[in-house]
Design a protein that fits this description.
Oligomer: single chain
Distance between the termini: 51 Å
Shape: globular
Low-confidence stretches: none
Helix content: 40-55%
Number of strands: 13
Mean pLDDT: 96
Order of helices and strands: HEHHHEHEHEHEHEHHEEEEEHEE
Bound molecules: N,N,N-trimethyl-histidine
Radius of gyration: 20 Å
Structural class: alpha/beta
């Protein structure tokens, strides 16, 4: 088979590192118990990304209302070479890391810009979804024969302290944190995350932070409540995951998707609202949960920034913000932070 040789070479350029699946399973069970027994019920957004959830998110990125992905891709289409040059300035070589890589579609533009500068590249993606991670790693290895990949299937908190061991002595690190993934963290959480990342990095290493910008309510709410109901399905899918993994009996038809912009906190909130009084049983947790009619389960915050917030965030966590790029319509920002 002519492709055999190529397959072997791709295998040799790939390392997959998984957090122990048992630990991940226990965390999910405990986080769901904590969220559904709280006074104001909640579920954590990192649990959206099972296999179907990751694919629904991919579909969201294609929706006309969800401008974030296209705006960031436009920035990279126009500025990837400049970004790669700013990231590389003063270093002989760069390795590329990414938090929440998903399908890594936008990443390709940065990979190509770096490869054309230095000929070979180490890419270290971190993603909560092992399926999305492995799939995207294999696609990249097939496209780029001089790429090596060390992939971590883990959440950020587990992966960041281990990133140090994947940094190469003689290469600067450029960490991608794209797509407004940082928006899932409240301001304190975002500071902690960037500070933890800073501790894993060395002076001169860089972080490229993609952040969605504050704008008109109608635009923001449409992005999280699209006409086709794809975001509703993405939100409701977390109930199907709980049914499957924790032997529960949620009827997703008895919940409705709600997305609202809270301009006081500068965030879009997503909720699942119970359309009637009901009791749900989670057999794996030996737990019964009552819902009132109209009661909401909070599932996600997506914080929106302005450029002053981002400058402050960099300064408070051990970086200098050296460059910002915007899309033509100024909806989205890419911010280069340099570790001081
Ligand atoms: C992947 C966290 C950036 O908040 O915009 C998309 C997830 N939620 N539609 C976002 C999401 C609903 C997305 N992030």
């Amino acid at each position: 088979m002519p492709s055999r040789q190529g397959d072997t070479q791709e295998e040799e350029r790939l390392r997959l590192i998984s957090l122990a699946p048992e630990v991940a399973r226990d965390d999910f069970a405990e986080d769901v118990r904590r969220g559904l027994t709280a006074g104001r019920k909640f579920l954590l957004p990192k649990y959206f990304y099972d296999e179907l959830g990751s694919r629904l998110f991919e579909a969201i990125c294609l929706l006309p209302e969800y401008y974030l992905t296209r705006a960031e891709d436009e920035i990279f289409a126009n500025h990837a070479e400049t970004i790669a040059a700013a990231a590389s300035a003063g270093a002989s070589r760069v390795s590329l890391l990414e938090l929440g890589s998903g399908s890594a579609t936008k990443t390709r533009r940065i990979v190509e810009a770096l490869l054309s500068r230095q000929g070979e590249l180490l890419y270290v993606p971190v993603d909560i979804s092992p399926a999305a991670l492995e799939q995207s790693a294999r696609v990249l290895l097939q496209s780029y024969p001089s790429l090596r990949v060390t992939a971590y299937a883990a959440d950020y908190a587990a992966a960041i302290p281990r990133l140090r061991q994947s940094l190469e002595e003689d290469a600067r690190a450029l960490v991608l944190f794209l797509g407004s993934n940082i928006g899932n963290f409240d301001p304190g959480g975002a500071r902690e995350l960037l500070a933890a990342l800073r501790r894993a990095l060395r002076p001169g290493d860089r972080v490229l932070v993609g952040a969605d910008l504050k704008k008109e309510r109608a635009t923001l709410e449409a992005a999280y409540d699209d006409a086709l109901g794809v975001t509703a399905a993405f939100n409701l899918n977390i109930l199907a995951r709980i049914n499957r993994e924790l032997r529960a009996d949620f009827d997703p038809r008895r919940f409705r998707h709600v997305a609202r912009y809270d301009d006081r906190h500068g965030r879009v909130e997503m909720h699942l609202e119970s359309t009637r009084a009901q009791t749900v049983t989670l057999r794996a947790l030996d737990l019964a949960v009552n819902f009132e009619e109209g009661e909401r389960v909070h599932t996600e915050n997506s914080y929106k920034s302005d450029l002053a917030d981002l400058l402050r965030l960099a300064e408070e966590t051990g970086y200098a913000s050296t460059n910002t790029w915007l899309d033509e319509q100024e909806r989205f920002s890419s911010n280069l932070f340099v570790a001081v």
